[in-house]
Each structure stands twice: as C-alpha cells, then as structure tokens.
Amino acid sequence: MALVKKGATTEAKLVIQKKLYHTDLSSGHNRLSIPFNDIENDFLTEEEKQYLLGQDEKKKKLVKTVPPSLEVETVKLCRWDMPKKSRKTSTYVIRGSWNAIVKSNKLRFNRTAQLWGFRVDRELCFALMKVTRNHAA
C-alpha cells in the first residue's frame, strides 16, 4: 500500500466500532458519525482538536482513508456540536468522499464497521474495516 510505504507509521488505534445506521449510509447525508461518547481511543492531537473546535464548516481536516477495497480516498473530518435540552452533544463526522466509500465497499445497514486511526509522517490516516461475525474483514 503506497500510503504506508511512503513514511514512518504509528501503531493503529481503534477509533470506533459501530453498527452502521441509515444516516451513515444515505447518499443525502454523505457522512459517517463518530459520537464522542463512542470513541474508543483518543486519535487526535491537541492541535487538531483545537482546529476542529466550533461550528465553522470550513474547519475540516483532510484525512487519507483506506477502506476494505484498499482504494485510498481523502475524506473531510469535521466536528459537530449539537445543543440538546440539558446538555450539548458532540460528534466527529467523516464527509466528502464518504458516499464513494459506501458504494465501492458495499457497506450495509446494521452491519458493524471499525474505524482505525494511525499516522504516516505525523499525518492522521484512517483504515475502515467491515466486521464479520468473529473478525474484521
């Protein structure tokens, strides 16, 4: 994989394992949500967290992503803060090329996926895996 051969890499950390919902797969939504409460391991630097802070749609981070097809896509990572009655909930979302990833990798409703984060030459990258009954594929 050219992405990994290019430079020094860090060990991958599981960001989230989740069942895919309709909004994760809908072409109209074109996003994968990563709710803060469901994040398994911290995957952003403090500088990246500060950069993504706020509602400004222009504050996005381009991240190379390796899906099961191994066709590297560049996605946009954003942070959304949503006010609720008693508190504010926050989520990261992957946008941009997400619809292409859904289509080319045949992602399906109610199936489980894992998103892993790693770094190549200090730049954040993602690997997406489909989880079958007993293992990731």
From TrEMBL:
<dbReference type="InterPro" id="IPR005508">
    <property type="entry name" value="At2g31720-like"/>
</dbReference>
<dbReference type="GO" id="GO:0003677">
    <property type="term" value="F:DNA binding"/>
</dbReference>
<protein>
    <submittedName>
        <fullName>Uncharacterized protein</fullName>
    </submittedName>
</protein>
<dbReference type="GO" id="GO:0005634">
    <property type="term" value="C:nucleus"/>
</dbReference>
<keyword id="KW-0805">Transcription regulation</keyword>
<dbReference type="InterPro" id="IPR015300">
    <property type="entry name" value="DNA-bd_pseudobarrel_sf"/>
</dbReference>
<dbReference type="Pfam" id="PF03754">
    <property type="entry name" value="At2g31720-like"/>
</dbReference>
<keyword id="KW-0539">Nucleus</keyword>
<keyword id="KW-0238">DNA-binding</keyword>
<keyword id="KW-0804">Transcription</keyword>
